[in-house]
């Protein structure tokens, strides 16, 4: 079929190279040798099937070697593969199991995988359980009974509660509860001096409330790091109340002034109406006199006396408006 034997040999060598490449790609022989040298029993067929199931053999084998060297007997290949295919972090779970075993912490494999699948870092949780973590609270402002504001900062030392990691509240809940306890403790104090003299009273009161119930942590201690004196809230509220009362009084006074002005305007209007009626009545007097003279009800002498009376009255009014010097000059 092939005229040149060298060509045939080259083709066989190329095909052999391709077959070896495919074999070593799907069957990690060096990884199998490493597992055997570490005392982990796993076959080449199992490693090949991991490739078929899209499970990285290196992740499973390295985790098995770590668990075997740490003396963990409850970690199997099937369990690690199942956890990987459900979206878990296999190596993180094995690290956590090894750390828990060395620290004499009871952490079953099922609990560790459940914590990992719940979205929590199980390895960090074990480390926090061994080495407690310190959480600094933001500044918390509260007002004592005497109206003085205090701004407190606290440091909360917590330890992870392995059995509450699944479904337990996190750090934000701890901080919120501690802040609430600080506000309650300062608010129940008679004066701010009492709190400044005994800042540990805040810690004791907050710890007695059992703030870690239902959380993924166990509170070991609450230490007040700093307390600063803020504003005099009581005096500020009194000033605001006084200003509000003043504004109300001013509004009422303005209302009364407006009502008085309205009443004065109404009285002026009525006076103008009365003057208009008087002027109108005075305008009717000459007509009435003329009518009386024509009809004979009023004689000429009566009319003359009436005019003299009016002139006398007018003179008296002018004299009443003159000063003493003017009267003396007229008499002279």
Which tags fit this structure?
332 residues, alpha+beta, 14 helices
Describe this structure in words.
With 332 residues, the protein is of the alpha+beta class. The chain has 14 helices and four strands. The chain has helices spanning 5-26, 29-38, 44-52, 57-69, 77-85, 90-102, 109-117, 122-130, 171-187, 192-197, 200-208, 233-295, 300-321, 324-331; strands at residues 133-136, 140-143, 148-160, 217-232. Strands 1, 2, 3 and 4 form a four-stranded antiparallel sheet that branches. A hairpin with a 4-residue loop joins strand 2 and strand 3. Helix 2 runs parallel beside helix 4, helix 4 (57-69) runs parallel beside helix 6 (90-102) and helix 9 (171-187) packs across helix 11 (200-208). The longest helix is centred in the last third of the chain and has 63 residues, at 233-295. The chain starts with a helix and ends with a helix. The model has no long low-confidence stretch (mean pLDDT 79).
Oligomeric composition of the shown chains: single chain
Overall average pLDDT: 79
Evaluate the radius of gyration.
53 Å
* Main sheet record: 4 strands, antiparallel
Helix content percent band? 55-70%
- The number of helical elements comes to 14
Strand content is: 5-15%
Which series of helices and strands comes N to C? HHHHHHHHEEEHHHEHHH
What is the 3D form? elongated
- The poorly predicted ranges are none
Q: What gap, in angstroms, lies between the N and C termini?
A: 173 Å
Determine the structural class based on helices, strands and strand pairing.
alpha+beta
Question: Would you count the extended β strands for me?
Answer: 4
């Amino acid at each position: 079929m092939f005229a040149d034997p060298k060509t045939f040999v080259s083709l066989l060598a190329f095909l052999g190279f391709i077959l070896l490449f495919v074999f070593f790609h799907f069957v990690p022989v060096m990884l199998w040798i490493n597992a055997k040298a570490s005392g982990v029993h796993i076959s080449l067929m199992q490693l090949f099937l991991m490739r078929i199931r899209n499970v990285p053999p290196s992740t499973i084998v390295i985790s098995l070697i770590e668990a075997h060297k740490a003396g963990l007997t409850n970690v199997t290949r099937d369990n690690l593969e199942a956890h990987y295919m459900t979206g878990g972090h296999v190596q993180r779970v094995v690290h956590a199991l090894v750390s828990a075993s060395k620290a004499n912490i009871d952490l079953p494999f099922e609990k560790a995988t459940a914590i990992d699948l719940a979205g929590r870092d199980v390895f960090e949780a074990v480390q926090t359980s061994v080495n407690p973590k310190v959480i600094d609270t933001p500044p918390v402002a509260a007002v004592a009974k005497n109206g003085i504001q205090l701004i407190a900062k606290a440091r909360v030392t917590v330890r992870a509660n392995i059995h509450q990691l699944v479904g337990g509240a996190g750090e934000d809940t701890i901080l919120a509860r501690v802040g609430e306890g600080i506000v309650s403790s300062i608010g129940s104090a008679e004066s701010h001096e009492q709190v400044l003299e005994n800042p540990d009273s805040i810690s004791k009161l907050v710890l007695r409330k059992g703030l870690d119930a239902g959380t993924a942590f166990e509170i070991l201690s609450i230490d007040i790091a700093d307390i600063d004196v803020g504003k005099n809230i009581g005096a500020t509220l009194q000033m605001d109340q006084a200003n509000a009362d003043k504004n109300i009084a001013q509004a009422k006074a303005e209302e009364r002034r407006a009502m008085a002005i309205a009443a004065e305007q109404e009285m002026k209007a009525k006076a103008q109406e009365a003057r208009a009626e008087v002027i109108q009545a005075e305008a009717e007097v000459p007509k009435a006199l003329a009518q009386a003279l024509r009809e004979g009800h009023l004689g000429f002498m009566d009319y003359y006396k009436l005019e003299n009376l009016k002139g006398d009255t007018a003179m008296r009014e002018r004299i009443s408006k003159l000063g003493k010097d003017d009267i003396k000059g007229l008499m002279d």
